[in-house]
């Protein structure tokens, strides 16, 4: 069996991306491979990495080190974030070089140097293994780079229908304002419209610390960071799940489907390859269209029931073991010297985006203004002298934070 080095970025509590890396590394170890995890950063305690992984994610690994500058010889090395790809490319020993791609990470940055440098990571000659079909399509289409892919799965021991759960007329939204790709503002404005049109609907936000939620203009309940079992309980008592992602599908809609929860997402190129139209509604990316899709489902219990059944049926064939087996198969193909091909990938989602305004109708001017104004619109409306004073205060605050 092979020795495999993983270059893991700085650990983040609650990170689904880290959990996915670690689950796949564990799956390789269960099949006899030896994984050595190299964590970004430095630490003087040689046991600290193992302790942190177990403390934050509950997984146990024997071989964990800090730093990417002293990778020991291995049969294969796996980059897991764009700026780790160059480290894998430049390793001083011969090995198979892979790239575990979970997002189109260029989109994490404004168009500029960082965006282009992230794109450059796909040109380094590593063999990508992507989560989902869209990323495989994108790498082939944009860069002529062939990749393996594995399908989104879910832990069906955790994410499943709970017959005893009491359904509420509620929408749950994965709210992560620290991740721009999760489009928290679009989601909040859509939910504000839903609450305006249907005041009796409960709005649940989760996925980030409640103290970081900022100002939200409608009644809601913020549940903060939830453990996996509490996420499943939330999906079972909600009527609709909302999850927005602009750089690849999130894993969360697949977990929602496994729990029997109808899902609303955005109709974009990155969501058309992995979602089944029977269980997921993809809306045009305006708050009005997203709200309309939610309102339509709230108004049609029979449609929700049909989508719920379709979602659990779709995910029944996608337990986490199938996902990790597909990944292991790709890694073992690379270890044998095989290469993927550039074969095209077909879309799963064939339905058009929903565009009617029947449910949303005419909105009050106060809401309309919110939907079309940039985040700094209020500041821009202030007198010039006050704007300059606020700008000065912000610069001072940033310097103080940088010098802490």
From TrEMBL:
Acyltransferase listed as a keyword: no
Domain WsaF C-terminal as annotated: residue spans: 171-294
GO-annotated molecular function: transferase activity
SUPFAM superfamilies tied to this protein: UDP-Glycosyltransferase/glycogen phosphorylase
Origin: domain of life: Bacteria
Keyword hit for Transferase: yes
A Pfam family per the record: WsaF_C
Keywords on record: Transferase
Protein name per its UniProtKB record: Glycosyl transferase family 1
Source organism phylogeny: Bacteria, Pseudomonadati, Pseudomonadota, Betaproteobacteria, Rhodocyclales
